[in-house]
Write a structure and sequence with these properties.
311 residues; Rossmann fold; five-stranded parallel beta sheet; 14 helices; 10% strand; binds adenosine-5'-triphosphate; binds magnesium ion
Length: 311
Amino acid sequence: MLLKQVLRVCSAHYTNDESGSNMKHDRFIVKPNSAISLEKDFDPSYKADYITKKDATGKLQSDIKRLGEYQDVLYAQNTYALLLIFQAMDAAGKDGTIKHVMSGVNPQGCQVYSFKAPSEEELDHDYLWRSMKALPERGRIGIFNRSYYEEVLVVRVHPEILAKQQLPPEAKGKEIWKRRFEEINNFEKYLVNNGIIILKFFLNISKAVQKKRFLERIDRPEKNWKFSASDVKERTFWKDYMTVYEDMFNHTSTEWAPWYIIPANHKWFTHLAVADVINTKLQALKLQYPIVSKEQRQELLQAREMLGQED
Ligand code: ATP
Ligand code: MG
């Protein structure tokens, strides 16, 4: 390709008129200031017009490829970062979704953090501290596999965890959850205002399918490592989790960082829906490769001339 052509391509606006999305995201999104019911409003087995996994393979493959292309421009432009937050009950498929959906992305432009129970050092700080440190740099996609949302989920379901947080008495009152929602909303607003775009996914699995997946993990030797006896214990708190999840959605789905409740009983549909939501968001950003200045163009031409003079 001639240098002029290369330059034209590089400075061209990155357009992809074909959004490729045939999904109605309204079905997944929690409208800000609404009061949703997880059970009534969101079907974990929903799969749009697709019947089997095979029907979705073509779209998923092209969406994975497209995500890789967007990520390339995101990286080159170095203006926005994309933060993807995944929350779910055990065995809902967070790991598999991350693995599949991100499979076309350059590993250099992507970072995954899995948040576990906080360490002593982390407990000695405010609850957002460890997340701040893990935020993606501009140009990157950062993935939070679990997140600060655990602070209004597991911590709320198990008061003994809150008791270990060394909070001053005035911070521990019954207003704590409302205050945390507010703090999280403000934190996310700050991030979005500064170019860190946030997408929050809840992978919505049913209790029956969770049981099926646990049994598979027990029965299939290659899946044994994924099983932990404590997961079964945690399952006994299912109802409590649904209550706190619902309250969290109703207070932290905002215009700037809405929650997407993704059906998770069919893993292939989860992957399809997550990829679709990410691509739609990236497309809306109208990402652009950096424009080459006159001086830079001159330098490129000089470099080309030097290369041409080599033996
Ligand atoms: P896997 O699919 O491998 O089970 P996972 O995300 O469930 O993935 P685990 O190591 O099983 O990973 O669990 C991490 C645990 O850490 C979860 O039980 C979660 O509730 C807990 N955790 C995460 N953040 C916090 C927090 N801020 N406070 C207390 N516990 C937390
Ligand atoms: Mg687990």
